[in-house]
Design brief:
By secondary structure, this protein is α/β, with parallel strands linked by helices. The protein contains 18 helices and 21 strands. The protein starts with 11 loop residues before the first helix and ends in a 20-residue tail after the last strand.
């Protein structure tokens, strides 16, 4: 304990007992700033850190210690010295500041308080509390609030803050700012196939490669899910942003070692650049729009945002809104295209084809909206409507003597085939309309089988077990396991080039037969194509040469072959 306090207007021993009971480091100053007493905690800390200029011993002047610390570059020391003078002069009652202090390479934090001492002769009490634990917890929480916990990259909030600052700096530097919006192509396949733990590790690896691919000063952030954003400042041309996008694409494109196997990943990147008036939200939105355009154009590429892309985005949004309203508004129509048996030219089945009759734009091509409907998940309710309408029409035709044996087939997408209960939905629609399963067929594209895996294959086997015919479209890349899943394959003649003698067509028909399946040639447009199918032993044919898709009431027998 330090020496006795001057003045004697209060009980010295009681005062010092109180000070020693404090966990905080405490010192008593006289009216000149001289340290006249310290508690045990102050003395112990001063012994542990003898070089600390803010821990003067009894008999030294606290103001001089603060001024020495200020000369060494401590801004807090200058403020403390000024505050101590004011408190000792009676112009300020108390002062408080939190400040850092380095010790053996570690950064410590203290809360310092200076309060006037109401005793004869004046003076002040200085206390220090070690708040290092609290400060570290606060900094950890602040970091967590602004960073992605998985990858450690800045999160969306921090990215927006840095983008705002970058745009402000851009105005002074006369340079451009770019935002890259990076989306991992088919990341969901990795997650679903290898599991979420492997997917998380892949995201961490992508984040590390992003950091390495960028320039000093660029910011990479995890924007959400498998989406990342990159902020590039100080650009003098579009080419600078393109070079960075190419580096990012190349970094992500290198094989990843995951789960004892190599995984190859690609990315779609949208680039938005501004050298003028643009808000952070607009720049990110434009980069996102350009990224979506890159995905539309085949993935594994980058796309620069432009006015044309913005217009396409507006048109897409309008189409989305109209598509949401179309089913409720009764704007969908079914057209039926006949398929014939090449042995007797009899119409054996019709394929139900959905069409959208837009109230303003008229009949739209399926290519203009079906992919969007599938992406939005609207293909499921639209498909259910198609099945119901097709079953009702099949029942009406079966009541007519001339179409009693006609089979009606519907197309099902991969998204529909993986829906729980899709088989029951079709069978219930058939039962509700008095249609036997054998009078129905479903058609799927080869890609739905190859990408949908066992879930799709099991669904198709369920259809076959129930008596529903199953056909695979775009036959030509099929495998032997198709024989267990489908009973009919469709050969698209429009996809076969450079086959003047029909050898490729004959070989594919022979392959279908070898797998034990019925083969139907589709998109037949000439009599010569029809003859070649017949001579190669093809069982069925369909195409504009035989019959155009027609409304149910206009269904007629195909032209003679």
């Amino acid at each position: 304990m330090g020496p006795a306090m001057p003045g004697g207007s209060w009980d010295e021993s009681a005062a010092m007992a109180i000070l020693d009971a404090l966990a905080a480091h405490a010192a008593i100053l006289d009216s000149t700033g001289l340290v006249v007493a310290t508690n045990d905690a102050w003395s112990a800390f001063a012994k542990e850190h003898p070089a600390d200029p803010w821990r003067p011993e009894v008999g030294r002047n606290y103001l001089e210690a603060c001024e020495k610390a200020a000369r060494s570059g401590s801004g807090e020391a200058t403020a403390v010295a000024d505050a101590v003078r004011s408190v000792l002069a009676g112009t300020q009652a108390r002062f408080h500041v939190d400040y850092p202090s380095s010790s053996d390479g570690d950064e410590l934090w203290f809360s310092l308080r200076v309060s006037a001492l109401a005793v004869e002769g004046g003076g002040a009490v200085v206390t220090h509390n070690d708040i290092t634990g609290r400060k570290r917890a606060e900094m950890k929480l602040a970091h967590q609030a602004l960073h992605d916990p998985l990858t450690g990259l800045p999160n969306r909030r921090l990215f927006l803050d840095r983008l705002s600052l970058g745009l402000a700096r851009m105005e002074r530097s006369q340079t451009a700012v770019a935002v890259l919006f990076v989306d991992l192509d088919k990341f969901k396949v990795v997650n679903d196939t290898l599991g979420h733990d492997v997917g998380d590790q892949l995201l961490v690896d992508v984040a590390n490669r992003l950091r390495a691919a960028l320039r000093p000063g660029d910011t990479a952030a995890r924007y959400g899910g498998d989406e990342f954003t990159v902020l590039c400042e100080g650009l003098t041309s579009e080419n600078g942003a393109v070079v960075i996008a190419e580096r990012v694409s190349a970094a992500i494109g290198r094989p990843f070692a995951l789960d004892d196997a190599e995984t190859v990943l690609t990315s779609s990147i949208g680039i938005a650049i501004t050298d003028g008036d643009a808000s952070p939200e607009r720049l990110i939105h434009d980069a996102d729009t350009a990224m979506y355009r890159a995905k539309q154009r085949g993935r594994a590429r980058y796309e620069l945002f432009s006015g044309a892309i913005r217009q396409r985005a507006i048109e897409r949004l309008e189409l989305e809104n109209a598509l949401h309203r179309a089913l409720e508004g009764g704007e969908f129509r079914l057209r039926y295209q006949a398929e014939i048996d090449l042995a007797d030219h009899r119409m054996t089945s019709v394929e139900a084809l959905v069409r959208w009759e837009h109230p303003k734009n008229g009949l739209l091509s399926p290519a203009d909206w079906l992919p969007l409907a599938e992406e939005l998940g609207l293909i499921v309710p639209i498909g259910a409507w198609v099945v119901g309408q097709a079953c009702r029409q099949a029942a009406a035709w079966h009541d007519a003597l001339d179409h009693r044996d006609l089979r009606v087939t519907v197309n099902l997408s991969q998204r529909e085939l993986v829906q729980p209960g899709v088989v029951d939905t079709v069978l219930e629609a058939a039962s509700a309309n008095g249609v036997q399963p054998a009078s129905l067929g479903v058609e799927v594209r080869q890609t739905a089988l190859s990408e949908g895996g066992e879930i799709v294959a099991a669904t198709l086997r369920h259809f076959r077990a129930a008596g529903v015919s199953v056909a695979v479209d775009d036959f030509g890349t099929a495998s032997a396991w198709l024989a267990e899943t489908v009973d009919t394959v469709k050969l698209d003649l429009s996809t076969i080039d450079d086959d003047p003698e029909g050898r490729v067509v004959s070989a594919l028909i022979a392959l279908g037969h070898a797998l034990g399946m019925r083969v139907v040639g589709k998109k037949v447009e000439t009599a010569d194509q029809l003859d070649r199918l017949r001579s190669a032993g093809c069982e069925g044919a369909q195409g504009f040469y035989l019959a155009q898709p027609q409304a149910a009431q206009n269904l007629q027998a195909p032209r003679p072959g």
